[in-house]
Protein 1
Amino acid sequence: MDVEVTGDRELLAALNRAQSRSVPEVEKVVAKGSLNIKKGAQRRVSGLKHAPAYPASISYDLYHGLLTVRSQIGPDKTKRQGALGNLLEFGSRNNAAIPHLLPEFAAEEPRFVAALEDLAADLLGAEVGVVQAHADAFLALLRGTAGLTVYPRPDGAGDGQRVPAGARPPYVVVDVAMETPEGSALAGVSDRVTAWAYCHCVGGNDVACRAVAQLVRSALLDRRPVIAGRATGLIRHDANRPPSADESTGELVVEQTDVYRLDTYPA
């Protein structure tokens, strides 16, 4: 007779997208829960005159898959009196049951679930941090460039508007997108990040638009930004949308979009 504790597959899949450290962290939670069940079960059956060696036979083993961590908990039948597990847990017509594993499993379950929920919150919170860190890497380089106005403003300044009302060119509006396309390790977890900065360069005429694009190019191209906990490549220029003119407001505005790419890996 044994009890199994499993790290939920869907949760682990979500955590793998968040951080490559998710499976090892889940393993810690599963191992702690397994140890609690083991020790609790041993306490419940300690001191039995007819089975003094039985408590020492209760143990657990951890098993790993790409997206699972599984623990098998119960008496080891190769150890002294380990074969008594089913008889003690469920009893028989001649022997009263001494429940010990199943009650400990029931007691541990809410603690185990709460621990996984806390871990998920921590790691998924870290995922949000990873997204913002890559955005900040682009934006810091752009905002540190003299003569370049960058929107949106930091931390929602400008009433949270993408481009503040009344803003006049030249300026650049930056959107950042991110993917985790594949893993860099044998485990296959999604720890590689590719981030793109879509830089919408806006000027009052063709010359001004190109000047903004040049400032953006000088700020980003072939730069290696610093991101905590990440090994970063050089920023590359991936694509360009040619300039387009807009006079719908009665004032000429010229815009072109340049796309820059950054690849990073766990440090």
Protein 2
Amino acid sequence: MSAAQTIRARLVTAGVALVLGVSGVIAVGGGVASAENCPTDNVALLGIPGSKQGAERNPGATDGPSLYGEEVWNTVEALRGTGMKFDADHLSYSADGVDWLYETHQTKHNYENSAYKGSKDEGYGRAFDWVRNKIADCAGVKVILVGYSQGAHIAGDLTQTIQKGEGGLGGPSRLKGTILLADPAYNSTAPQATEFGIVQTRGQGNLLLTEAQISDPNLRLDDPNMRARLGLKAADDARPAQGVLGRRDHVSNASPVVSTCIFEDLICDHQGDMHAASHSHVHKLYLHPAEDGDQTATSLAAWSARKLAASAR
């Protein structure tokens, strides 16, 4: 295996505590409970695209990747592939970008005054209404939230609201699961954390391996300095990571929440001494294959879907 380039990634299954199928745009407004409006197996999924993705950025589009964003759509399709049954909607919102990030020394100040925050708040409000409407329409319905980047920010905040029993959304029993890809409030120290590394292999492109695999001295690597560059001496000594907007607290060790971050993706692994623009490409690596020693997935997004399917209520 060649190691011309190595990037460490982290995955954690945890709750969140920071409130900072193509079926159309979500509906707003209450309704009377009716079996006719209820989703397959009484499970409804909301896919939330990231910045500069989604329906409002692709007028007239009808395909999944355009409406959900490629990362979220890949995750939704992978969830279907596990045998999980649900009806899926995409969230349509302005999805304004993250230009505020590129002056890292004033990130939080820039965030508070950014179009991104208005976009995130708009998306949160629409996603909140979507959950409220599903609960009003269907007794016992459970929801799945899937978000990438800004969409993960929205999904994470809404998950927090549900888990804490706030907002009249029915509490934790209504949450089937959440997948957060590149959450701006990522927390690598939350329970059930799993470390990943992306290794560029000869003839295979980028492949994700667990950090324990990379740390294994029996793993033969063409680049003997790879472990040193990653700071890996043991599987459990990785530097804690947090998102550009801080670190979410976990609510419960049993929360069905999968959150994935790639090392040096400065949206979810913020490092003040690194310039965000020079690492922006890392934010696009969530569609690369992933392997955990037991199975190989076609992408990190798909691996996250399998992880949720194995743990979802």
Protein 3
Amino acid sequence: MRSRQVPVYSGILFLSCVWIHGVDSTPAVITVRRGYTPNATVTAGRDAVLVCNGEPSEIGVWYKDGYSYYIAYIYEWSGNCNFRSNQILPRLELGSSDCREHALRISNISKIHEGRWRCTIKMEERAVNVHVVASPAETTTSRTQDSVNPQTPSVTSMTTILGGTVGGALALLAVVITVCCLLRSKKDKRNNGSARGPVNGDHRHQDPEQRKDAVMVDNVLYDSYGGD
């Protein structure tokens, strides 16, 4: 029992720390470069900043595989860094005031942001594959729930158990019915045998009057007097 309580208490302590200190607020900075497509892994709930370096006056357009149109674009105008989004994906904003980075910030990243992101500057494309993994809090919560009730049977196992029990009961019922039918058939045969007429010379099962007549017929004295 104590071994089950240890992971439960550990999970509660970890969740308390996360609630007090929060998830890592430092954004994950991912820089896309020319020539190759790197893979980047970000924890769910964390912020991520995608950086695509170029001249500030040049327009940096961000795309994501699976969407026909651009996701957002960034450019400098009158000394200010301008950000435009088509609102296809939520929680997107300008990632840096330095327009040379054409930085796209993804707040509270989740699975909907996972995939291949592309940045285009002056028709030159760069890309990065973003993978979103579960946060430690979610993993710990799942493990804590499993440790609280590790022996809880699944729906599939319960269905299998119930199916086996019902099948066994039906088989037993079939055996009982078969035995009862055999006993009933044997009893009927006995009754039919006892209801048949007596064999010649056997007067055990005859009516008393019939037995009397039979006796008188066989009696020599009765025949000689003829009942006179």
